[in-house]
Specification:
The chain has 3 domains: about 10-180, Rossmann fold; about 185-250, Helicase, Ruva Protein, domain 3 (Orthogonal Bundle), CATH 1.10.8.60; about 260-330, Winged helix-like DNA-binding domain superfamily/Winged helix DNA-binding domain (Arc Repressor Mutant, subunit A, Orthogonal Bundle), CATH 1.10.10. It is about 50% helix and about 15% strand. It has 14 helices and 9 strands. The chain has helices spanning about 10-20, 35-50, 65-80, 95-100, 120-130, 170, 185-200, 205-215, 220-235, 245-250, 260-275, 280-290, 295-305, 320-330, and strands at about 55-60, 80-85, 110, 135-140, 145-150, 155-160, 175-180, 310-315, 315-320. The strands form 3 sheets. A 5-stranded parallel sheet has the order 2-3-6-1-7. A two-stranded antiparallel sheet has the order 4-5. It has a two-stranded antiparallel sheet with strand order 8-9. A hairpin with a 2-residue loop joins strand 8 (about 310-315) and strand 9. Helix 8 (about 205-215) runs parallel beside helix 10 (about 245-250). The longest helix is centred in the last third of the chain and has 18 residues, at about 220-235. It is globular and about 70 Å long. The structure holds adenosine-5'-diphosphate (ADP) and magnesium ion. Adenosine-5'-diphosphate binds near residues 68 and 223.
Length: about 350
């Protein structure tokens, strides 16, 4: 089997943004998501023992919870190569062709944002996923003929923030479908401690817990907050770190006791103040905030819904009494409570 190949173009950008140094390289380095982890480990182990290609896997969940991390770790565990594509960039079946024809036997093709595949590309994928073949039409009109091209068996790994947007025929072609949920404070604190060690910065348990509590259940945010605290500590605190320094740094970024930032609070405030608490449609909120509905639905709402600060009703979003309380308390620091 070939060794792990460095992922291409899109991955390169993402790796820079995410700070490659902090991304777990092996499954064993990943924290949390134990159920998903166990099931994937079993599937990988079984495929390896039988010398088979791993079945197709669909990962869904809010941004920053580890979809790409799983997607880069899985081929390493399988000892195979990885190709990375993005649903948004695959406009026509021909865009998918190089990936499919390059896929080595048993290799992994990761399609990020798979809900953004146009229907024509999706339909082109069906026989590729099911029978490892594709149908290519050559010529037009009466001269048109379809040729059948066999592919080497590969694993399709799809990731999406919107499982609901995946069509049933595509969803059903994945042997495993795994949902990633927000991390507990304990799990995030462990990630913070590990990341701090990698960044060679001091970290005590109280500060790690505080960063974890203020990271909206999301490892990517925990790492981002940690890097900011590290900058703050270097610039303002002589490289020292304690709970007070961590809190001051986070408050300077407008991050409150629940981990919400000013954009999250603006969303809550828009529903509360402009729309009298709701119910209000997502488009109206997005217009008022000069934002995109996708941003609100992907980045803002999942955690606020999870914390029951807002609810979704058939007539739109509504702020809850808890959400109103939070607005009243923010952005001042309230006693940090246990969230989950
Ligand atoms: N289970 C995990 N354990 C440790 N760190 C994690 C874990 N999941 C994610 N991370 C960190 O969070 C960052 C974002 O994760 P990523 O896989 O890119 O999220 P997604 O693709 O779901 O948006 C990673 O670079 C990594 O540093
Ligand atoms: Mg990703």
């Amino acid at each position: 089997m070939t060794s792990f190949r460095e992922p291409t173009i899109k991955a390169a950008e993402e790796f820079v943004a995410d700070d490659r140094a902090l991304r777990p390289q092996r499954m064993a380095d990943m924290v949390g998501q134990r159920d998903v982890y166990e099931r994937l480990t079993i599937a990988i182990d079984a495929a390896r023992k039988r010398g088979e290609t791993l079945g197709h896997i669909l990962l869904d969940g809010p941004p920053g919870l580890g979809k790409t991390t799983f997607a880069t770790c899985i081929p390493r565990e399988m000892g195979t190569t990885l190709q990375i594509a993005s649903g948004a960039a695959l406009a026509a079946p021909k865009d998918l062709l190089p990936y499919l024809s390059n896929a080595a036997e048993g290799s992994v093709l990761f399609i990020d944002e798979i809900h953004r595949l146009p229907i024509a590309v999706e339909e082109f994928l069906y026989p590729a996923m099911e029978d490892f073949r594709i149908d290519i039409t050559l010529g037009d009109g009466v001269a048109a003929r379809t040729i059948n091209m066999p592919l080497r068996p590969f694993t399709l790994l799809g990731a999406t923030t919107r499982a609901g947007l995946i069509s049933a025929p595509l969803r059903d072609r994945f042997q495993m479908r795994e949902h990633l949920d927000f991390y507990s404070v304990e799990e995030l604190a462990e990630i913070v401690r590990r990341s701090a060690a990698k960044l060679d910065m001091p970290m005590d348990d109280a500060s790690a817990d505080e960063i974890a509590r203020r990271s909206r259940g999301t490892p990517r945010l925990a790492n981002n907050r940690l890097r900011w605290i590290r900058d703050f500590s270097t610039s303002r605190a002589g490289g020292q770190l304690d709970l007070k320094i961590a809190r001051t740094a986070l408050e300077m970024q407008g991050i409150d006791a629940l981990g919400l930032d000013s954009f999250d609070r603006k969303y809550l405030d828009t529903i509360h103040r402009v729309f009298a608490g709701g119910p209000v449609g997502i488009e109206a909120i997005a217009h008022t905030m000069s934002s995109a509905t996708d941003t609100l639905e992907d980045d803002v709402e999942p955690f606020l819904l999870r914390c029951e600060l807002v609810i979704r009703t058939p007539r739109g979003r509504r702020i809850t009494p808890r959400g109103e309380d939070h607005l009243g308390a923010a952005p001042k620091t309230v006693a940090p409570g246990r969230l989950f």
